[in-house]
Every structure is written in structure tokens, then in C-alpha cells.
Amino acid sequence: MEGGQTLSIPYGVWPDPINPLWSEARPYRSPMGGGQTLSIPYGRFKDLKGSKLLECLSVYDRSFIYMPAFSSSIGIKPSFWAAQTVADASANQTVLFAHPEFLRRVSAFWAARGVSARRLSTGLFMVTLALSLCDQVDVYGFWPFSHGPDNKPLSHHYYDNEPPNSYHEMPQEFKQLTQLHDSGVIRLQLGNCGGVEHELSH
Fold this sequence. Notes:
This protein has helices at residues 39-45, 50-57, 76-88, 100-111, 122-133, 170-182; strands at residues 4-5, 64-67, 94-97, 138-140, 187-190, 198-199. It starts with a strand and ends with a strand. The longest helix is centred in the middle third of the chain and has 13 residues, at 76-88. 32% of the residues lie in helices and 9% in strands. It is built from 6 helices and 6 strands. GO terms for molecular function: alpha-N-acetylneuraminate alpha-2,8-sialyltransferase activity. Belongs to the glycosyltransferase 29 family. It comes from Clupea harengus (Atlantic herring).
């Protein structure tokens, strides 16, 4: 398929937290590159030309843009739009589409473990993918509650500050991640990524 590619990444250490595309945080470099999800690019750029998307992506140099194009019918058009925009511009970024069978199997895996969501969050998909590719997985920014560990209010759904929806079961996902952390499978990092890291206590 033109524009989208399959994922092929060598083993390595999971990168530092993925800086939000729309923040003023400095871009980072890692063996795996950066990442973004479907809802942000299309939501912000659906009424604009692709040049705006390319402008924002340019700070990320050689990065991956992960898009679950086939997770729902509404994801197909924006995913191909973003992939074609990046491909036409010969940009440094690479758009990756999740294979439908991967989406199905990951959903079934977590459903068998008590995550009864209509649709898993992209974050849990990415953690699952990382566990299959990486020797070490550090998870940042995964917090399902309205207030952080420091009791300060938090926005939901990246920087859109949308209320929690009925598609995801974030508390169930968080419970699974804490169990993985407690068993030493992942390192779940809490707190402000710009300051001192706080690893979840055992």
C-alpha cells in the first residue's frame, strides 16, 4: 500500500517518553524514533492542507507515525490521508499501519485478561508491540485518573482535554500495567517527565 509500511524495528531499549507533537518540548532521538497516534493528526488537520501537518512533523526528523488505520472504519480515510501526505512530500517520517490481525489478536489477548473495552487504547497497543520487540520497556504518561500522583488536575486524551469516553477502559488497562510492573515485565514511570521521574512503587 502506498505511503504506509509494515513495522520492522530491531531490538533495543524503549525510548524516552514520546514528546507530544503539539507541545513545545524538544524532539528526541532514539533507535526507534518517535510516534504519534491517529486522533491527533486528523483531528487537528482535517480541515487544513497537508503542509500544516508536515510543518509540525518536521521537528521529529526520522520518526515513525503509528496509525491504527484498520481498527475502525473511521480510521481508514485519515490514516491514508496522512500516509499520502507524508509520502508525497518525501518527508523523513514513516507512516506505519497496524496489521488488522495484530489488532484482533491483541484485543483478544487483553480481553482474556479482563480488559473489556470496546476498543483498546493506542497506548496499550503500543506497550504490547514494544514487549514483542524490546528487551526493556519503560511506560510513561499512562494514567487513567483525573488527578496526577501530585494531586494536580490532568487533561485527558493528550492535549485535547476531552472527557473519558465509553470506548476505552483505562482503569482496567492501568491495572494490567501495574501488574506487569510489579512482576518486572515493564517499568511504569509516573510523574512529570520534565522533572524527576517517579517509578511506581512495588
